[in-house]
């Protein structure tokens, strides 16, 4: 068996310990005589799995009592619609457009009401996060929306916008559980789990009680109403059971290594290794503005399309895979999520040094 260093932006690496535990549980989950994949979502065993997963997530993020935790299907993209449908009661929301993902969410929101773009970094090819201190928000907006870590451009908010009484809604897909967060700063947090937490197919929504309305926009499908899922504890219909089980194992793994502060420390060390190399390199260059750099997604280029392509090709020979940049921007991107070991980043930097010597 050979494991590679997988720098994919998602689905992405999972901790090897978690995969081994899932492997051990595969045929007979805790004496049940079946796999979690074969188990009724109404069984006592699954009830324990989902309830434990929720509690562990609550412990990791210190989620206050007045927030609900939902494990849903439809990916983060479905939330681009579910959020306006459930929250746009005055039919008005402010969006900060800092990259492809917030742009998509903004476009979707326009289908349901007045979505205002209060700031955009598209003029700089989304290489930076707009200055949140310079912004004023509509006081009568239902919410202010951000994508807190833009996966494609490798930018992140190091400071959150002050939105007063207007709830802040954040897509945290590509930074979920990579560092501690103050949940009370937000009205709603959501993210697909396939980057930092588990297999594709689960999206986690953390929503404050007062935003769970019984009367969302009238056409909101029953299954997409937060109230439906809150009442059913995410079991309104069959949930993505196996995915939730793996998320639960990852939560335990995170607790085992010391929680989110310990995870953040590891992530900073890994990211610094790569950024320090990039900053002194005469061949490679990081594309995101320094102050807004992400700890999770690191896009970089050589300046030559041919050399970029050669780098991606030769990297495979060093067990460095999925390092190609997003098709919309080209170049390279190293996604160094929680489960990427430090050795993976070391191997990448070593190969970059070697490549630079050969091609400078
Ligand atoms: C920040 C962000 N938001 C949303 C999405 C879309 O997620 P999904 O494919 O789960 O709908 C992605 C996917 O890569 C993402 O990186």
What attributes does this structure have?
360 residues, alpha/beta, Aspartate Aminotransferase, domain 2, Aspartate Aminotransferase, domain 1, 2 domains, seven-stranded mixed beta sheet, three-stranded antiparallel beta sheet, 14 strands, globular, binds pyridoxal-5'-phosphate
Give a nutshell description of this structure:
The protein is an alpha/beta fold and 360 residues long. The protein is built from nine helices and 14 strands.
Provide an overview of this structure:
The protein is α/β, with parallel strands linked by helices. The chain has two domains: 17-256, Aspartate Aminotransferase, domain 2 (3-Layer(aba) Sandwich), CATH 3.40.640.10; 257-359, Aspartate Aminotransferase, domain 1 (Alpha-Beta Complex). It is 35% helix and 16% strand. It is built from nine helices and 14 strands. The protein has helices at 16-25, 44-61, 75-87, 100-109, 226-231, 241-256, 259-280, 305-316, 342-359, and strands spanning 5-6, 67-72, 92-97, 114-120, 143-147, 149-150, 155-156, 168-171, 188-192, 203-208, 285-286, 297-301, 320-321, 332-335. Helix 7 runs parallel beside helix 9. The relative contact order is 0.17. The structure holds pyridoxal-5'-phosphate (PLP).
Topology at a glance:
Elements: E1 5-6, H1 16-25, H2 44-61, E2 67-72, H3 75-87, E3 92-97, H4 100-109, E4 114-120, E5 143-147, E6 149-150, E7 155-156, E8 168-171, E9 188-192, E10 203-208, H5 226-231, H6 241-256, H7 259-280, E11 285-286, E12 297-301, H8 305-316, E13 320-321, E14 332-335, H9 342-359
Helix pairs in contact: 1-6, 2-6, 3-4, 7-9
Bound molecules: pyridoxal-5'-phosphate.
The site of pyridoxal-5'-phosphate has 11 residues, from helix 3.
